[in-house]
Structures are given as C-alpha cells and as structure tokens.
C-alpha cells in the first residue's frame, strides 16, 4: 500500500477555553516582529477585530497580559509583546517541537 | 494563572489523502461489532452514504479492503471487517495510545 503519513495538531487550553494554538502563537510572533496588531493581522490575513479578540482572550487567561495594546485610530494600534508573551511562545514552540519529534518517530514505526 | 491543558489530535493519511482518524477508526470498530454498515452509521449519527464513502475511500488506499461490503437493499447492507481492517484499527489505536502518553507527559511538564 501507499506510504502512511502520520500528522496531527496540538493546542493548549485553560479551563476557560482555548489559549495557545498554531494560529495564536504565530500572531504573537508577528506582533513581536512588527510591533503592531494591525500589521500582524494583515500578514495573517485575518481581520483586525479577530486578531484583537484572540489577544484579548489570551490576555484574560493569564495573570499578566501577553500583549500590551495601544489605542487604535490614526497613528495608533501599536502592540507590545510582553515578557509573558515571549514566555508563552517559547512554551508552545518547545511542546510542538517535542510533538514533531514524536510524529517523526511514529512515522518511522508505522512504515517499518 | 489557570492550569494549562495540552490537547491534540492525530491522523494518518497516504499520498492520496485521508486514511485513518478518530471517526474513521470508530466506524471500523462499530462495523466489527455490529456487522452492518447501516447500524454502524446510525450509531455514529452519520448518514449511510457518508459511512459508505469513508469505507470506500479507506478501501481504495489499501492493497486489500478493510471492510467487505455486501449489497444494500432490503435484508442487505451487511459489512465484514477484514483482517486488514482489524490491523488498521490496531495500528491507529497503538499510535494514539503513544500520543496520549505524550500528551500526559507534556501536561505534567507545562504545569510544573
């Protein structure tokens, strides 16, 4: 039969609901790079409103905000990735890296 | 902050597309238990047609069919899980069991 390919996804939630997933973490990373929620949303091809909602939700699920958001409007919309935000990215990427290793290991196993 | 909960899903595909996932494997298991595609579809609350398509697709991605399907119609619709089908279930469940252990290990790690 054809070669089998194992794949999958992981995410982190809290008891209140979704917290970190591939999309949310990419959004945090882009905010870190661009310093702007509007630019980050645009690069991810999601609406400003959706990006804002994601960040607002993530911030509410933490003691300290992951992103500090400036005011909107002309010349506004700046967004700062906090230390807590950097930590969240690092946590998710490290768990995902372990997951990718798991997937690789299993792919070898199922095609032996 | 709230306790973080890592979760995820895995699936197996071939180069032609989807092959085994949680729903498909549950369908195979129910066919094994019930000997009927119609009853299996009904227990899973999916249409007969959808169940048939899933099985047809899985069968086409293997050298040997996972399920041998009888004719439809009155008194028909019997379905037999083949040895290949049993093997596919076992493979997926064993990979998923490793994945669940991975998730458990990571959940301890991220909440330390």
Account of the 3D structure:
The structure is a homodimer of 112-residue chains. Chain A is an alpha+beta fold. The first copy, chain A, has a single domain (19-99), classed as Winged helix-like DNA-binding domain superfamily/Winged helix DNA-binding domain (Arc Repressor Mutant, subunit A), CATH 1.10.10.10. Chain A contains four helices and four strands, in the order E-E-H-H-H-E-E-H. Chain A has helices spanning 22-34, 37-43, 48-60, 83-110, and strands at residues 5-14, 17-20, 67-69, 79-81. In chain A, the strands form two sheets. Chain A has a two-stranded antiparallel ribbon with strand order 1-2. In chain A, a hairpin with a 2-residue loop joins strand 1 and strand 2 (17-20). In chain A, helix 1 crosses helix 4. The longest helix of chain A is centred in the C-terminal third of the chain and has 28 residues, at 83-110. The model of chain A has no long low-confidence stretch (mean pLDDT 93). Chains A and B meet through strand 1 and helix 4 of A and strand 1 and helix 4 of B.
Supply database-style keywords.
112 residues, two-stranded antiparallel ribbon, homodimer, alpha+beta
